[in-house]
Amino acid sequence: MGPVLESVLPGARHGDLAAPRISVVVPTYCRMNLLRRCLDALMAQRLPPHAYEVIVVDDGRESRVQFAVGELARQPGAPRIRYLRPANGRGPAVARNCGWRAARGAIVAFTDDDTIPDRDWLAEGERALREHPEWAGAAGAVQVPRACSEARPTDHELMTAGLARADFVTASAFVRRAALERIGGFDERFRRAWREDSDLQFRLMEDVGPVGRIATARVQHPVRPQPWGVCLRQQRNTFFDALLFKKHPQLYRQRIRKLPPWDYYLVVVASLAAPWLAWTGHGEAAAACAVLALTLVMWIAARRLRHTDRSPAHAIEMIVTSALIPFLSVYWRLRGALHFRVLFL
Questions:
Q1: Residue 148 burial by Cβ neighbours in a 10 Å radius (0-12, 13-18, 19+)
Q2: Rounded Cα distance, 192 and 163, in Å
Q3: Helices (H) and strands (E) in the chain, counts
Q4: pLDDT of 39-57, one tens digit each?
Q5: What φ, ψ does residue 15 adopt, rounded to 5°?
Q6: Residues 142, 143, 149: CA angle, nearest 5 degrees
């Protein structure tokens, strides 16, 4: 998939046509301030400017992004920067494919527009892959700082902190270009920023070679404020769990989720059964189902509050969303199972 628009923006050593050793792919979508922060960090890498290039893939197709990237590229000592727009489709998988296919480096480093790579990020990634030629790629480290580290985290902050424990995320990843060519890159059926990185990792492991870890190649992924009930919108992500399960059932159960969310299914079944039983004259059974559903919802809320903020506002949010999450999660899981034609619960 070629780009509609590519601009090679002038930076330091613009006349040097030698291929860089590393290509950094940064997909972006309408987040100019975050992208600027990320690019500032990439331009401050300890590697010499001629050793790497930065490829910004603008999935939002904004002229202001192209202009801002050009302004950064004209700074003294900047690496070579390229601005691309995907020809067709949207989403992080499409954008990353557009980026790595245009890359000239033997190593492709992936990060997101909301990260802040450490100054040694690229140097450490290159060093590790040089020392481990058997690796098809490697996961760097992700640190998730919070605005107030002393207070208990919110539910959203705790979920975002899971990036630091993930096996492989494209916020900090290094893949040999030859390996990407062999497996065809990202599966563009993953239209959201969810599970497309796990799918890439699993295919690398199955078809190319081991995927290592580089603890010293760090990026920061600060937690950004989110509106009330953000967890409800995130349930849509489970649609793509069905696709990942269809492609890698064993690895999905081993590394993603061992068992289906039976508590969610019980909440849905009990909640739907209670009014039906009451309408058909089975009052005691209806009451038992209602109590079961309420008990499970409170247990889910208590589980989410166990290690998070317990302020009244946050507690109310957890209780209300815990009553809604099972229905949304089950809906999107079953919809994904039907769409991708896989027995997935």
A1: exposed
A2: 16
A3: 13, 9
A4: 999 999 999 999 999 999 9
A5: -80, -5
A6: 160
